[in-house]
């Protein structure tokens, strides 16, 4: 299998961190240079018509896109360690947490960065700085919600590390690098403590 990724992009990082947590070997990584518009090349668009990374090319030539779908496929191939839930009930609650983080925290960060950071102008034309600034504020509202959740349990979805922690980690690190967001400095101690614990995991460097 081949995994198409891009440096610094948070969604590919979610998949590579998932792979690292699973201890999966043998997946070739193919780097796509977003700044050079390689994701819009004829060769890559033939694999993913939406011109997005990550994309997982299977051994039979089919291409699986969308981060969560790729992780679901890999979880099926490599059930342990379990990251998406044992049984329908736990799976549902983990998916709820993961989707909340993805749709509210992660997306707010992405919108803010894409519309305010000059380095992302090549990928987002036109940029709307006022929209980006408002998304940055909304992201902080959801970060405060997550801080409250982490005051009650050690991980995003509850008592153990799951795919929801991977999504939250990659979102926050993207914000840390391009928005200079530090939860502890903005009155979110539980989110900061969680972030610091996550940074100690070997997969966090992927």
TrEMBL record:
Residue ranges of domain GST C-terminal in the record: 87-206
Known InterPro entries for this protein? Glutathione-S-Trfase_C-like, Glutathione-S-Trfase_C_sf, Glutathione_S-Trfase, Glutathione_S-Trfase_N, GST_Omega/HSP26, Gtt2-like_N, Thioredoxin-like_sf
Superkingdom of the organism of origin: Bacteria
Q: Which residues form the GST N-terminal domain?
A: 1-82
What protein name is recorded for this chain? Glutathione S-transferase family protein
> Origin organism of this chain?
Massilia violaceinigra
């Amino acid at each position: 299998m081949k995994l198409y990724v891009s440096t610094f992009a948070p969604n590919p990082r979610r998949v590579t961190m998932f792979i690292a947590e699973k201890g999966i070997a043998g997946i070739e990584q193919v780097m796509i240079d977003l700044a050079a518009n390689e994701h819009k090349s004829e060769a890559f668009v033939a694999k993913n018509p939406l011109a997005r990374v990550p994309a997982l090319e299977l051994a039979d030539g089919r291409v699986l896109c969308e981060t969560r779908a790729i992780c679901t496929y890999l979880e099926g191939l490599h059930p342990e360690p379990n990251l998406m839930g044992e049984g329908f009930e736990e799976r549902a609650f983990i998916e709820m947490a993961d989707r909340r983080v993805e749709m509210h925290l992660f997306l707010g960060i992405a919108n803010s960065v894409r519309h305010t950071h000059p380095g992302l102008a090549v990928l987002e034309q036109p940029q709307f700085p006022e929209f980006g600034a408002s998304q940055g504020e909304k992201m902080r509202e959801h970060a405060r919600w997550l801080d409250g959740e982490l005051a009650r349990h050690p991980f995003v979805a509850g008592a153990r590390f799951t795919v929801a922690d991977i999504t939250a980690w990659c979102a926050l690190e993207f914000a840390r690098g391009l928005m200079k967001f530090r939860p502890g400095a903005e009155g979110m101690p539980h989110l900061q403590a969680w972030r610091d614990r996550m940074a100690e995991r070997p997969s966090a460097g992927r």
